[in-house]
Amino acid sequence: MRKKHWYDYLWISAVSYLFLGLFNIIFAWLGMIFFITPLLIAILKGNKAYCNKYCDRSKLLELLGGKFSLSLDIVPPVFLRSAWFRYGFLTFFMTMFSLMVYNTYKVFTGVSLSKNVILLWVFRLPWTETGADAVTPWVAQYAYGFYGVMLTSTILGLITMVIFRPRTWCVYCPMGTMTQTICKIKHRKETQEKFKML
Question: Where are the domains of the chain?
């Protein structure tokens, strides 16, 4: 039996994040930790250590799909692993993220705050929570948008976990695609620099 490490329990942070956001939307800003950390590791270290070892969402999917057997454990279709799908999904995801930032900017310039969490980029969730009135409107707007992005990606991960293998989300995760691209560019530059020194 494999020895447990502290990072095996990072699934708690994924659950805590989603739970806290339901009651106070400002907690959604904590998601920036999950957004920035893998990029920094890829840029500074040139590897995907975050994805492979520290990702809280992958730990949650492993727990639910593996330990609790909520996954059919079927090999995901080839197209999910294809470059065109992964980069296409990354492009789509970043477009949605850019629209979220643009809506935040509009609120910053005076447009009324929209107190809605949008799920799967289409559905407005029906609950009303607290916290938005305690901060500047644009801060709350970003929180609503970012929580919607994080909740949407979690649900997509859960759906593919059930249908396929537990960590199928990791195959097409936009963050994984970004960090992989950063690592490739970094290693290519390092290789070119070594050849220049020869």
Answer: 6-197
Please give the full DSSP string across 160-187, using - where no structure is assigned: HHHHS-TTTHHHH-HHHHHHHHHHHHHH
Q: Are strands 123-124 and 118-119 parallel, antiparallel or unpaired?
A: antiparallel
Q: What is this structure's pTM?
A: 0.91
Q: DSSP letter string over 8-50?
A: GGTHHHHHHHHHHHHHBGGGGGGHHHHHHHHHHHHHHHSS-HI
Of the pLDDT bands very low, low, confident and very high (cuts 50, 70, 90), residue 57 is very high
Residues forming beta bridges with residue 124, ordered by sequence position = 118
CA distance 139 to 103: 11
The better pLDDT of the pair 186, 167 is held by 167
